[in-house]
Design brief:
Layout lengths: L1 H7 L2 H13 L4 H14 L10 H12 L4 H9 L10 E2 L4 E5 L12 H5 L8 E5 L4 E2 L15 H4 L2 H4 L9 H21 L11 H19 L3 H12 L1 H8 L6 H15 L6 H7 L13 H5 L7 H13 L19 H4 L5 H11 L4 H9 L4 H13 L1 H10 L3 H16 L2 H11 L1 H14 L2 E3 L11 E3 L4 H4 L4 H11 L2 H9 L1 H12 L7 E2 L12 H21 L8 H22 L9 E2 L4 H16 L4 H4 L3 H22 L8 H11 L8 H14 L2 H11 L19 H20 L8 H15 L4 H7 L17 H8 E4 L2 E2 L5 E2 L2 E4 L1 H7 L2 H7 L4 H16 L31 H15 L7 H16 L5 H4 L18 H5 L3 E9 L3 H12 L12 E4 L8 H7 L5 H14 L27 E10 L1 H13 L7 H6 L10 H15 L1 H14 L9 H39 L5 H10 L10 E2 L6 E2 L7 E10 L28 H15 L2 H4 L10 E12 H13 L13 E2 L6 E2 ...
Antiparallel strand pairs: 1-4, 2-3, 5-6, 7-8, 9-12, 10-11, 13-14, 13-15, 16-17, 18-19, 18-22, 20-21
Length: 1670
């Protein structure tokens, strides 16, 4: 009643009246009036929309009779705030000053920045991403010197105190106003499940004026904020207003809604609560409640918690229980857990529920300058932290929400005092780590690394939205932020249970995003999950690690480092156990993500570098070190594999991963720790073991032999060189990189800067971006005391911006100073830091240009050698890597191979070998006596070198080396020649890859010495060391391990590649090989004179080419060892005889040169003449090849050799003409394509229309492909699978079509051509990596080369002669031919001695082209059998390729042979060569004679049916088999070339089968009466002459035979009756028979044309004529 009268009055006078009432001593009447008035104007029951009238009333009431604006001004005048606290949202422009900032997150608004003095400071202007607040005036976040003039004065001291009545009305009205907002929020909220049309935005829109009003109040200054804080944090007010009055039904219902919302806020769902005890929510009691929300134990006892976590962690990574995020029985229900005690808590709760509306966020942040509010709000925020993250994970707008969460949290956690306070009181660290664990556990999958079946480890799935969308970012960002505070970080490092939890979290990322190498087909879908994986490792693992490392810089924090290292090792051990790792990594698997290894490496590095810890005290035992080394080494080897195109079938994404791994933002969290860890392992493990491991991982062990030929079981020939280069470059990087081994921060910064500037000139901003800074963004700019600018000015000159003619402006660039090029250019650092390989070349080009410009060198300079900074004493063991016998053997072998021009050696290989030698000379092992091993017989490499010092091994002469070579190798030939000349001592068999024998051994008894001598094999050596270290015993591994056999190769059965043992006479030392290489490079006989040694000075040889590098090494060796100097003098004396008197020399030299030139010219002339003669001869033969028996006879008689009519091919690359040989085959340029043209053909001739409705189909069922599929599946239901697969052809859909432009080239020329295309930087329209190219002559697109078989092109002469043999004789001969075993082509020189030997080049190429054919089509078009990958499938696919190409040629000819041979495609056919290649492949499969279709077709005696077991299905009957398929199978499985008489015999026999099938098919179409009639007609004609050739008698015979078998005709009687509406005449029967036999006859004719050169039957376009012609 009273309220109604007040409402009728003017608002201003009412407000003045109420204020006067409330100021009285007895204000009960005023209070009552005010309450009634507010009940009316702020009644949420009045409707769903808040009433703007109520807001207006509140403004008047607050002002208490004054105008509201006037009231605002008055309140502002009492503002006592010392902080700015201006809040901004995303995209606001703000400032950051690193000079003034204490926290790296500090930021200033423009007004405060401009009102303060930041001259000369390191500041930047930035566009805010998530929003922020001004920190001016906050001494915890920035230095006071940076405050603006307004906030520098302690303004609060001069402000008068607030009159008590000014804010009296605010204290009375605002609680009611806030509860009204809360009630609206309660009422408007619906759970996502309960409402499909849930629209929270609508509720927020209606409330916007009210929340804006609150925001306006906060801007009135400190006085109003104090009142608001009091209201928001007052527990009593909340208690009074929250539930509403007893009689108020709306308030009751409203409160219940709030309770139900609260109930669903736990981290476990309702069902889980039922099953697993109480649910989780947010802790009430901030001192002990945090863990009750998150941990697996009661929060009351933190000790218990740590014990349980401990056990949980030690259970084994794979079996780790999921962290149950529910509270213990101590908190029986969620109600006790998440109980709000004040408005602030509930307001934050609804802010979270409504997914952080911007206005609410701004209001909550605007209040922060009030210190009491800030502390309460931070505690409230921490209390709700888990709930916030749960909401974030469910949110559809996680990006926006993330930004707003960080907007709040960064303001709270940047203050160290506050962060420490909530860490201690509210267990913030425990909450964060456990919530992170909870988050990641929602997307765990089983790891497939190593042992796919039994792997117990779990990793995050990078394809999940949580990782792909970076949803975890706000949490990780907060975590990094609080770890930047020393007090918080120390607490974290001291808490054992937390560290264990954190390690288990990191282990979730260990081995994620596993790549498996595709070996057969290109991956269909290129996954982009690697972005998420790299981002996750950097943000969730590496950045917190860098944050922790910043607090481990002084000796006092040693214990923290020791603890982390211990836990890293424990977790690593658990990881190895969980993935089932023993000693070898799984083949063809690669993961770039090893955060546990990197944590261990970085804490190790920091402990040694900054805290003076002893490295050995932090290292595990040798066995563990060996395990730790494996995966980082696997990554380094895989990088080389990726660059060698071994992973090309995995798509571009794998290259993307390799590039990201070394990219500037990732490198010092990924590749740098990996290389450092490998350096640590190398410095502590046995160097021979380590070196052997490296070469084995890089798969180049087989290449490290002195033999000129070798067999590599795992690499193709073109992959060997890049892999060897990769292995050597890696060893150079490992031995020379000092980033973690002794370089100061300034030196690191300088080296990084120089390497980036050497690649290209850079702008300031791009250089700042490219220098890998400490990835923790909170840690300042760049590590090191020296500033970026000082360093930049020391190493680079600035090129000012210039205007270009077009008017555009070129940016100012930094370019390296001349002295940097001269003294500091480090190609090894450049290689390490390049993302693109072209950048290395760019650096070398710039270096060359500098040298030319400065006049130092005009040649082709090599990468310069750079002296290294000394190693930290802890890592001295790394030098032993350069002084181990295994490396010296490898160096010796490679020097020898380069000198001997063996294949796959390159300039880069030599460059790296020389680099390793020089590193060894510059880094001598301190105490050689201790290091050198005694000469024990059992050590299989001791016979090479006496000691381990490189300096003494350089001059050690190796006399004989025993090698394993293929029998085709030139070494075997030379041995045979020697044996013919004189008796040679026998060699014992050995399993070696490479073997050396010193000269003193060979003086005694040969046999004895060779029996004594062990074998040197890298693999055996590594395993022996491994066993020795594991067993801790001295006995050797019982036997050498044979290098893996070539199981993956395609080899004829029963003929493995024969390796024989040969002894090579070497008689060289490393020094002598270096001298000989110097001669080779300089192309002079006496390039190093005896006087040279006396004059040389290594200092002058800093820049130059390979000659300079060799001279520098020789000079160093001579300077450091008198023995080496003496040996060098001897070598130079032997190799370079004394120079004759000077006066004669110039003339002699000239005359000698002249003579040599003449000799060469004569040789060239003879070669050209011989070539012309061969071309002329081939032309004459072609021109005179007339079809006359006389000339044939003359040619036959005159031929001295059977192969005189060899076809000569022109190579379009080298221009030479010659036959194709097994050693140097020629090939046809071909394009292999998958084609489904045949499959789309239809029976009916009616043209197909494009479908216009859903009912119409573009591919009807009557297509050729569908028919054949149905036929095969029907047969497979009733007959034996292997028999079915030889009874049909496939390839109608997805068959491989082979086309050629007709040009030929040598296979080796083609390889060089492909290599040049690969190195060509020009953008091509085809993929060279997939073997694509354009024909060098006609530029037609191609993707393979089809080898031409040696010998005649088309068989003539004896092969063509008609024979008088009877058919039965021929049948028997064909049967014998089929039983001959297939022999694979071998080298001609070996063929005479032993036909079953190593593969020739021709066979390798055939193998390669078969592989190409298989890769052309998809797997589904190759596997039709029930056992995918079986030989039957392979057999079917091979002969179907021949069928496909014959059928497609028929399609090209218009579907028949009427046009004779007019098709252009037919003229350029490659069927002859294709048949030869397929035949060579198919001859390796033998058909069991019991099941051979030929014997079943031609057997004269009627054999009884074979007996089958119950479970075995019968063979396919002959009448069901596809006859053209049988023809192709017979031809391809017989020895090539095939005599024409045998071909004709096969065709005749199969034609009988085809004709019988046609008769049977025809008889099915007859009605019963017709069958009877024709059967009688046939019987009548039987007795007439030539009855066996009359179709009538044959038809009658077939009908009578088929009638005997039951169910043949009965089943289709009704159907046949329908079909036989027309009567069959003899003409129609004859025509139908012709149509049924024509396809077979066409194919036979075409095949004969290609194999024997017979002309095709030319006839008119008339089907009748075609039949006659054929």
């Amino acid at each position: 009643m009273m309220a109604a009268s007040l409402l009728r009055r003017d608002k201003r006078s009412t407000a003045a009246h109420l204020k006067a009432d409330l100021q009285r001593a007895d204000n009960s009447s005023g209070l009552r009036q005010l309450r009634e008035l507010l009940d009316t104007v702020l009644d949420p029951e009045r409707g769903s929309d808040p009433d703007p009238e109520g807001l207006d009333w509140c403004k008047w009431l607050l002002a208490g009779g004054d105008a509201f604006d006037e009231f605002c001004r008055t309140v502002r005048s009492y503002d006592n705030a010392t902080l700015c606290g201006l809040v901004w949202t995303a995209n606001f422009v703000a400032y950051r000053c690193r000079t003034c900032g204490i926290s790296p997150c500090m930021s200033l608004c423009a007004e405060c920045f401009n009102n303060s003095d930041h001259t000369g400071h390191d500041f930047n202007m930035f566009r805010s991403q998530a929003g922020g607040a001004c920190d001016c005036g906050d001494g915890n976040v920035m230095k006071e010197s940076g405050f603006c003039s307004r906030h520098r004065l302690k303004t609060g001291e001069n402000v008068p105190s607030v009159p008590w009545d000014l804010l009296l009305m605010s204290e009375m009205v605002l609680p009611r106003f806030i509860i009204t907002i809360i009630q609206y929020l309660r009422d408007g909220y619906t759970e996502p499940e309960s409402a499909a049309d849930r629209d929270l935005q609508k509720v927020l829109q209606q409330l916007e004026p009210h929340i804006s009003f609150l925001e306006e109040l906060t801007k009135m200054g400190g006085a109003m904020r104090t009142v608001l804080t009091k209201i928001l944090t007052n527990q009593q007010t909340f208690k009074d207003l929250s539930m509403g009055q007893e009689e108020n039904v709306f308030a009751k219902r409203n409160y219940e809604k709030y309770l139900s919302a609260l109930k669903s806020s736990g981290l476990v769902s309702v069902e889980e609560k039922g099953a697993g005890g109480a649910g989780a929510g947010t802790a009430t009691d901030t001192s002990a409640g945090a863990l009750s929300l998150l941990g697996a134990t009661a929060a009351a006892s933190l000790e218990d918690s740590s014990k349980e976590e401990d056990q949980d962690g030690l259970q084994g990574v794979g079996q780790r229980k999921r962290v149950k995020l529910s509270s213990s029985t101590k908190d029986p229900s969620i109600m006790d857990t998440l109980k709000h005690k004040c408005f602030l808590e509930e307001l934050l709760f609804w802010t979270i529920k409504y997914e952080f509306p911007q206005k609410m966020v701004t209001f909550l942040l605007n209040m922060l300058p009030d210190q009491d509010y800030k502390i309460t709000f931070t505690k409230t925020f921490v209390q709700h932290y888990a709930f916030i993250m749960k909401t974030l994970m469910k949110s559809h707008e996680s990006d926006t929400m993330s930004n707003r969460i960080v907007h709040i949290s960064v303001q709270l956690f940047s203050n160290e005092e506050l962060a420490r306070h909530v860490t201690e009181e509210c267990h913030l660290l425990d909450i964060m780590v456990t919530v992170l664990l909870y988050m990641m556990e929602s997307c765990l999958i089983k790891s497939e690394l190593q042992d796919e079946e039994n792997n117990r480890h779990v990793v995050v799935n990078c394809g999940e939205a949580l990782l792909k969308n970076n949803t975890y970012w706000p949490l990780v960002s907060d975590f990094i932020n609080i770890l930047s505070h020393q007090s918080v970080a120390k607490r974290f490092l001291e808490d054992r249970s937390l560290l264990l939890l954190w390690m288990s979290f990191v282990s979730y990322f260990q081995g994620m995003n596993l790549n498996k190498r595709e070996l057969n087909e290109h991956v269909e879908f290129e996954s982009q999950t690697y972005y998420a994986a790299f981002a996750a490792e950097l943000e969730a693992c590496a950045q917190p690690m860098w944050g922790l490392l910043t607090h481990c810089k002084v000796k006092e924090t040693q214990d923290y480092t020791k603890t982390v290292v211990r836990y890293c090792l424990e977790t690593l051990q658990m990881w190895f156990d969980a993935i089932g790792f023993l000693d070898e990594p799984a083949l063809n698997q690669l993961t770039f993500h090893l955060p546990l290894h990197r944590y261990y490496a970085m804490f190790l590095s920091k402990g040694v570098k900054c805290q003076g810890l002893d490295l050995d005290s932090l290292l595990p035992d040798q066995e563990m070190l060996m395990k730790i080394m494996v995966h980082p080494l696997q990554i380094q080897a895989s990088l080389s594999e990726i660059h060698s195109n071994m992973w090309v079938r995995n798509g571009l994404q794998i290259k993307g991963q390799a590039m990201t791994y070394v990219q500037s933002h990732f490198c010092n969290s990924m590749i740098d720790p990996d290389i450092y860890l490998l350096q640590v392992c190398a410095s502590r493990l046995d160097p021979d073991y380590f070196i052997s491991s490296v070469f084995e991982r890089f798969k180049v062990v087989d290449l490290l032999t002195m033999a000129s030929q070798h067999q590599n079981a795992v690499l193709d020939s073109e992959q060997e060189r890049p892999m060897l280069e990769g292995a050597l470059t890696f060893l150079v990087i490992l031995s020379s990189l000092r980033i973690h081994l002794g370089m100061s921060d300034d030196e690191i910064l300088r080296a990084e800067m120089v390497s980036q500037l050497c690649m290209n000139d850079r702008t300031h901003s791009s250089l700042l971006d490219l220098i890998p800074e400490n990835p923790n963004p909170k840690s300042g700019v760049v590590p090191g005391s020296c500033s970026f600018e000082e360093m930049l000015s020391a190493v680079a000159d600035f090129k000012a911006p210039v205007f270009e003619p077009g008017g555009s402006m070129q940016q100012g660039m930094y370019t390296p100073k001349a002295e940097v090029w001269e003294k500091e250019f480090d190609p090894i650092m450049v290689i390490l830091r390049t993302v693109y390989r072209r950048d290395v070349q760019s650096a070398m080009d710039r270096y060359t240009a500098f040298l030319k410009q400065s006049g130092v060198n005009t040649g082709n300079p090599w990468p310069p050698y750079k002296e290294r900074t000394p190693l930290h004493p802890c890592y001295r063991g790394l030098v032993r890597l350069l002084h181990c016998k295994t490396l010296h053997i490898v160096i010796f072998t490679l020097l020898y191979k380069i000198w001997m021009d063996h294949q796959n050696m390159s300039e880069h290989v030599l460059c790296m070998v020389l680099y390793l030698i020089e590193l060894g000379l510059d880094n001598q092992v301190q105490d050689d006596k201790v290091e050198e091993e005694p000469c024990i017989e059992e050590h299989c490499h001791d016979s090479w070198f006496p000691g381990t010092s490189l300096l003494s091994n350089l001059h050690h002469v190796i006399n004989f080396v025993r090698v394993r070579v293929p029998e085709t190798a030139p070494e075997v030939e030379r041995k045979r020649e020697r044996e013919r000349e004189r008796e040679t001592p026998p060699s014992t068999s050995s399993e070696s890859a490479t073997f050396g024998q010193s000269s003193r051994r060979l003086t005694g008894n040969w046999r004895e010495n060779l029996r004594e001598a062990q074998v040197f094999s890298l693999v055996a050596e590594r395993r022996r060391k491994f066993q020795e270290i594991i067993n801790r015993s001295n006995h050797e591994a019982s036997q050498a391990v044979r290098p893996k056999s070539s199981s993956s190769r395609w080899l004829p059965p029963g003929s493995p590649p024969q390796l024989v043992t040969e002894i090579l006479e070497i008689r060289e030392s490393m020094l002598s090989l270096l001298v000989k290489l110097h001669q080779k490079l300089s192309a002079k006989q006496n390039s190093l004179s005896l006087s040279w040694l006396a004059e040389v000075d290594p200092a002058h040889h800093a820049h130059g080419d390979g000659l300079t590098a060799i001279e520098r090494i020789l000079a160093k060796a001579a300077a450091r060892s008198r023995h080496s100097k003496r040996c060098l003098q001897e070598i130079c004396g032997k190799v370079c005889p004394p120079v004759p008197p000077k006066k004669n020399s110039p003339g002699d030299k000239k005359s000698m040169d002249k003579e040599e030139r003449r000799q060469r010219a004569r040789e060239r002339q003879q070669k050209l003449l011989a070539e012309f003669a061969s071309r002329q001869k081939s032309f004459m033969e072609t021109a005179m090849d007339v079809e006359s028996p006389e000339t044939d006879a003359v040619m036959d008689v005159g031929s001295a050799e059977p192969l005189d009519s060899e076809v000569l091919y022109d190579c379009v690359i080298c221009g030479q003409s010659g036959p194709s040989t097994e050693d140097r085959p020629t090939g046809l340029v071909v394009l292999l394509q998958a084609s489904s043209v045949l499959g789309h053909r239809c029976r009916s001739d009616t043209p197909k229309r494009l479908p216009t409705t859903d009912e119409e189909r573009i591919y009807p069922e009557d297509t050729c492909g569908a028919t054949h599929d149905v036929r095969l599946s029907l047969m497979q239901r009733y007959f034996k699978d292997s028999s079915c697969l030889q009874s049909v052809s496939v390839g109608w859909d997805g068959g491989v079509y082979v086309q050629t432009c007709g040009h030929t080239l040598h296979i080796d020329c083609h390889k060089s051509y492909m290599e040049s295309l690969r190195n060509d930087q020009v953008l091509q329209g085809f993929s060279v990596d997939k073997g694509e190219f354009t024909c060098p002559l006609c530029r037609q697109f191609a993707n393979s080369v089809l080898p031409c078989r040696p010998g005649r092109g088309i068989e003539t002469g004896a092969w063509h002669t008609p024979s008088n043999k009877s058919l039965s004789t021929l049948v028997k001969e064909v049967e014998d031919l089929q039983e001959q075993l297939g022999i694979f082509p071998v080298s001609a020189s070996v063929k005479q001695r032993d036909p079953i030997l190593a593969e020739s080049n021709l066979s390798k190429e055939m193998e390669s082209v078969i592989k190409d054919i298989k890769n052309t089509t998809q797997k589904k078009y190759m596997d039709y059998g029930k056992n995918p990958g079986s030989p039957d499938n392979d057999f079917l696919f091979m002969y179907s390729v021949a069928r496909t190409n014959l059928e497609l040629e028929l399609v090209h000819r218009g579907g028949d042979l009427c046009s004779g041979g007019a098709s252009a495609a037919a003229k350029r056919s490659c069927l002859n060569q294709l048949f030869h290649v397929l035949a060579m492949h198919m001859r390796l499969y033998s058909i069991d004679s019991a099941y051979n279709p030929w014997t079943r077709l031609t057997q004269t005696t009627h054999s009884r049916e074979p007996e089958f077991c119950d479970d075995e299905r019968p063979e396919v009957p002959m009448l069901f088999r596809d006859v053209p398929s049988l023809l192709i199978i017979f031809i391809l499985t017989m020895p090539q070339p095939l005599r024409k008489e045998h071909f004709t015999c096969v065709v005749k026999v199969l034609y009988s089968l085809q004709f019988t099938q046609a008769l049977a098919a025809l008889s099915i179409r007859f009605s019963r009466e017709e069958r009877l009639a024709w059967s009688n007609t046939g019987a009548a004609k039987k007795n007439m002459p030539n009855s066996d050739k009359s179709w009538e008698s044959l038809l009658g015979h077939v009908i009578s035979e088929l009638t005997k078998a039951k169910d043949v005709y009965d089943t289709n009687s009704e159907e046949a009756f329908v079909l036989s509406s027309s009567v069959w005449s003899p003409q129609s029967i004859e025509f139908t028979l012709q149509q049924l036999c024509l396809p077979f006859l066409r194919l036979s004719c075409l095949l004969q044309h290609h194999l024997y050169g017979d002309s095709l039957p030319g006839c008119l376009m008339n089907p009748q004529m075609e039949v006659l012609g054929i």
